[in-house]
């Protein structure tokens, strides 16, 4: 079955770079039409799509955050990595790794909570 | 970016009654070549990640009860819960996957009256 698991630091300091890893199983990111996205949700607030990487290595980013984000994949390890630079307290949120296969987001990880504080 | 606007922000419905949530996109998310609207609905219960309930605007995800239905095309969409059950208390989000960046509505909180 499809599973996704996010990992990374729970606490980062302002101005630091956040690196999150999504480890997945049950599918291959080499399959045509497959994509992995990162989505975040500040406490009590709405979902915000951040970035996506596709089976063919195409990448897409949030308009407002694209200068701070990098998404990459390691298909041999079944992992997708998201880096976000210059972290700020407003970036405190639960970060979700998700899968889409030619349509909507059909699988979500449980999320990892990140707090930005000095 | 395509802006997704949901209404209302919250609603309280009696058990067994109908709940209706609207979602409007700032531009059409209908892809004529495939005759599909690239619109999904998600349900998020407290403390859980969202889960997909409707895609292509009106196709129910496997395992989703048939009291959930989606309708609409182009820029205006509706999620209907025909007979609200206690387990349907959640926040519901619409999302367009027609174009990147993908975007979500602000969410609609459904409670029991």
Chart the SSEs and their pairings.
The complex is a heterodimer of chains A (118) and B (113).
Chain A: E1 3-7, E2 11-12, E3 18-25, E4 34-41, E5 48-54, E6 59-61, E7 69-74, E8 79-84, E9 93-101, E10 105-108, E11 112-116
Parallel strand pairs in A: 2-11
Antiparallel strand pairs in A: 1-3, 3-8, 4-5, 4-9, 5-6, 7-8, 9-10, 9-11
Chain B: E1 4-7, E2 10-13, E3 19-25, E4 30-31, E5 36-37, E6 39-44, E7 51-55, E8 59-60, E9 68-73, E10 76-81, E11 90-96, E12 103-104, E13 108-112
Parallel strand pairs in B: 2-13
Antiparallel strand pairs in B: 1-3, 3-10, 4-5, 6-7, 6-11, 7-8, 9-10, 11-12, 11-13
Structure description:
The complex is a heterodimer of chains A (118) and B (113). Chain A contains no helices and eleven strands. The mean pLDDT of chain A is 97. In chain A, strands 2, 4, 5, 6, 9, 10 and 11 form a seven-stranded mixed sheet that branches. With 118 residues, chain A is mostly beta strands. The radius of gyration of chain A is 13 Å and the shape is globular. Chain B is globular. Chain B has strands at 4-7, 10-13, 19-25, 30-31, 36-37, 39-44, 51-55, 59-60, 68-73, 76-81, 90-96, 103-104, 108-112. Helix content of chain B is 0%, strand content 51%. Chain B has no helices and 13 strands.
């Amino acid at each position: 079955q499809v599973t996704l698991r996010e990992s990374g630091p729970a606490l980062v300091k302002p101005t630091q770079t956040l690196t999150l890893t999504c480890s997945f199983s049950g599918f291959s990111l080499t399959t045509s039409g497959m994509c992995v996205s990162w989505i975040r949700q500040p406490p009590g607030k709405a979902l915000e799509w951040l970035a996506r990487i596709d089976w063919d290595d195409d990448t897409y980013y949030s308009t407002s955050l694209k200068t701070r984000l990098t998404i990459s994949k390691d298909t041999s390890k079944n992992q997708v990595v998201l880096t976000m630079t210059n972290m700020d307290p407003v970036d405190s949120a639960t970060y979700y790794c998700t899968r889409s296969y030619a349509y909507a987001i059909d699988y979500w990880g449980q999320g990892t909570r990140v707090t930005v504080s000095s | 970016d395509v802006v997704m606007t949901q209404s209302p922000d919250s609603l309280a419905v009696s058990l067994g009654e109908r709940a209706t949530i609207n979602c409007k996109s700032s531009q059409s998310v209908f892809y004529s070549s495939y005759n599909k609207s690239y619109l999904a609905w998600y349900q998020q219960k407290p403390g859980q990640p969202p889960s997909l309930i409707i895609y292509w605007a009106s196709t129910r995800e496997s395992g989703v009860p048939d009291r959930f239905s989606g309708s609409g095309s182009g820029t205006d969409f509706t999620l209907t819960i025909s007979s609200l059950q206690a387990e349907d208390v959640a926040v519901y989000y619409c999302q367009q996957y027609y174009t990147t960046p993908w975007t979500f509505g602000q969410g609609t909180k459904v409670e029991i009256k």
